[in-house]
Structures are given as structure tokens and as C-alpha cells.
Amino acid sequence: MGRLFVVNLEGRIYSCKHCRTHVALCEDVISKAFQCRHGKAYLFSKVVNVTVGEKEERLMLTGMHTVADIFCVGCGSMVGWKYETAHEKNQKYKEGKSVLERFKLAGPDGSGYWSQEVHVGGSDADDA
């Protein structure tokens, strides 16, 4: 196996809550209106230090999408998903973008986010 290189970001960052590996910059947040099983999720234009899993078709609240789960390179925990293909014309802006589940991240101030309730609805979520 090859050597693992981890990108260290500068500025206000989101990191994996388990191992603190940097995954995204605050300035790369496109939307904070997404939902997942654990509550809030954010759409990012760019993420780092993740590996991409197998592509699969998922029916989301906004229609059918081809997505792949993304995993932290530091500890292997699943931190979100990447949109590969949006089948609805009005959802094409998501292609190539990644969603990180807020529950699985440490915020820019180093704090974690633990949702007390599961939210359903809003923008995209897990299976509809």
C-alpha cells in the first residue's frame, strides 16, 4: 500500500470528530440546509482527506442520484457522501459536490455537534 499524505488546511476548518483530520474549509460551504439521519449536513464545493466508496443509486428527497459515501483517511469513519450524478435537471448543481454530516465533524471552533433529535425533511436526506 502507498504512503498516506494528509492535507493540513489553514483557517477556519471542519475536521473529523474522531481523529481531528482536516476535511474542509468553512469558505467551501455551499449550503447548510441539508439533512441526514443524524440531523444537519452541509454541502461543500471541496473536501480533502477523504476516500470515495462505491457508487450507488439512491432515492433522496430531491430525486434519484448516483452517490458514493466518503470516508475519513485518518480513521476510516464515514463522514458523508459525494454526488456523482443528479438525474433531475434542477439538481445538477450538486454533481461533484460533497455533503458532510455535521454530527460527524468538529466545527471551526473545535467543538463537536451532537444532535438531540433526528430531523426529517428539508433539502436532501438519506433515503426518502
UniProtKB/TrEMBL annotation:
List the InterPro entries: Yippee (IPR034751), Yippee/Mis18/Cereblon (IPR004910), Yippee_fam (IPR039058)
Q: Which residues form a coiled coil?
A: none
Q: Which UniProt keywords apply?
A: Metal-binding, Zinc
Residue limits of the Yippee domain? 12-109
Please list the GO terms describing molecular function: metal ion binding
**Name of one Pfam family that matches:** Yippee-Mis18
Q: Where is this region: Disordered?
A: 108-128
What family classification does the UniProt entry report for this protein?
Belongs to the yippee family.
PANTHER family linked: PROTEIN YIPPEE-LIKE CG15309-RELATED
Name of the featured protein: Protein yippee-like
